[in-house]
Design goal:
The protein is mainly alpha-helical. The chain contains 10 helices and no strands. It is globular and about 55 Å long. InterPro entries: TspO/MBR-related_sf (IPR038330). The chain crosses the membrane at residues 7-30, 50-70, 82-100, 106-124, 145-165, 171-189, 196-212, 218-238. Keywords: Membrane, Transmembrane, Transmembrane helix. This is Tryptophan-rich sensory protein.
């Protein structure tokens, strides 16, 4: 996709994503809501309900991204390489609601892995562009917010799929899942210093603690260590010359 067709495809993908999630949030798909499905299967890592309000920010970011690249002056080939991963991530994110609301968490888990891979692909492609400050805000920050939350949501979706299949992993599973997310997140933050990414992960970990921390000392300890690791990794990256904005060299 190049030029005007690319711009149209990116805008359409963002609107499809927002529209499908709006329908799901209103309970107009399959007669239930996204949160109701999540709450129906306890996992030990399901965050408090208020955590999901971050989706509002993510959807605004997706629209900002789409609108920015839709400007007449943005028909240059430079943005063309961003279209495929953005379109894939947004279309898949909208389609994810179908298996999730239909009670097929295993299928939803496969889809969300595709969303995560598409966003990682987009993040890498942005990292390889010499972005201006305006582009980092309009393209980089929305991608970072989306990628950070989906990193957590993927772990949650997999946990729901396993629980629905009858396997929970016992008391050890939540700390292990949180520890894996924390390790990956801290590793990325040590390289990038991406403050937006760090804030979303911290928000998610706070919500997991609010919902599951009582009577779970191992989980609480891993969550606290994870938040500390995010802060230290980000600070070290910034001290080493990284920018607090995403994909900034």
């Amino acid at each position: 996709m190049t030029g005007l067709p690319r711009q149209i495809a990116v805008v359409a993908a963002a609107l499809f994503n927002v529209g499908m999630n709006a329908l799901a949030g209103a309970g107009l798909l399959f007669g239930t809501t996204t949160g109701a499905v999540s709450d129906a299967v306890p996992t030990g890592v399901t965050p408090a309900g208020w955590a999901f309000s971050v989706w509002s920010v993510i959807f605004v970011g997706a629209v900002v991204f789409a609108g920015y690249q839709a400007r007449p002056s943005a028909r240059e080939p430079r943005y063309d390489r961003l279209a495929a991963p953005f379109v894939a991530a947004n279309v898949l994110n909208g389609l994810w609601q179908v298996p999730w609301l239909a009670g097929l968490p295993g299928v939803a888990a496969v889809v969300i892995v595709g969303i995560l891979a598409s966003l990682a692909w987009l993040y890498v492609r942005l990292d390889r562009l010499d972005l201006t400050t305006a582009e980092r805000w309009a393209l980089g920050v929305p991608t970072s917010l989306f990628l950070a939350w989906v990193s957590v949501a993927t772990a949650l979706n997999v946990s729901v799929a396993l629980a629905a299949a009858g396997w929970t992993g016992g008391a050890a599973w939540p700390p292990v899942v949180v520890g894996l997310v924390a390790a990956v997140g801290a590793g990325l933050l040590r390289r990038t210093g991406d403050v937006a990414f760090a804030l979303v992960l911290t928000w998610a970990f706070a919500a997991v603690y609010a919902e599951n921390g009582a009577g779970a000392p191992a989980l609480t300890s891993v969550l606290a260590l994870g938040v500390a690791a995010f802060a230290v990794a980000t600070a070290l990256a910034l001290r080493g010359g990284a920018s607090p904005l995403p994909v900034a060299r």
